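Journal club prep — side note

Before the paper discussion, L.F. wants everyone to see what a predicted structure for a comparable chain looks like in token form. Sequence:
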Amino acid sequence: MSVRAVIDATAGAPERQARALGAFLREGLSGATCAETVLLYDDERERERLVALAPTRQVRLVRALGWSPARTAASLAALARAEATRLFVIAGGAAGTEVAARLARRSGGAVLTDALSLEVEADRLVGRRNVYSAHLVGRFELTALPWCVSLDPGWDDAPEGAPLEHDVAVVAGDDGGDAPEASPLEDVERIDLPAAGVVARSRFLVVAGRGAGSRDGVERIAAAARSMGADFAVSRPVAMNAWAPLDRLVGVSGSRASPRLCIVAGASGAPAFFWGIEKAAFIAAVDLDAQAPVMRQADAAVVGDAAEVLEELAKIVAEERARD
């Protein structure tokens, strides 16, 4: 089986990523053996040190100037196609989880985030992860390939393994050369990792759910939120479809907010989601389904297309501000 661990040094903390992946490959993965480590890096001077961190003997280097989860996902998706990779294991945290979600979306595979353990069984992957604020452990089966998994942050504290001698099998895009088909990365502008806590500190929050229907629908809702001066967040299905960054996730597996006003646009209101907004002083819900749980839980409810209603509301707010 083709299994690859992924260390993205451009996202920061490569030592933490390597330690977590090494411990997981030793203790958390059963039924398969990891073939190699894919190491993304941007500083040629750091290459030798980074290779020494890899938890597998085989190392594939990918030159990627600047942190970009979309580019990383594209590179790994091409690798999955070129070499029939079945399982990618990525260190936990916001950056790793976003890459896993984007990779699954791009490659048509399945994603599991915050994995405690994995067991390969024939044509399926069985993973376990904490649910409901770590009060329970859930069992999840993945069938669609490739399997894209990010680790539970608890693996970050695992002890380091014994050092290895490494074989650098492939150097992709090194020395400024063109990357091969398996690694279509190019120089990109460096951007900072998302700042934590924006959603949790919000006073006025708009949350987009699966009912937005598409990335375009989510972006329309986000634009309406910005024009009204609101912060923007999403439900888990939106984040897992890579329609928005994972640092905007609200719910048990994301942030918990307590804004004065929360507008829920197209989210059904499942308990794990509602936990993230239940402390809001006032909740307004917009959904095409009048029977959605959130419509009964909200202080005010509007039946309609989420993006259209939010855009109309943004126009009203703009008109009221113009009168002041």
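L.F.'s comment for the group: Residues 251 and 275 are 6 Å apart (CA to CA). Keep this in mind when we get to the figures.
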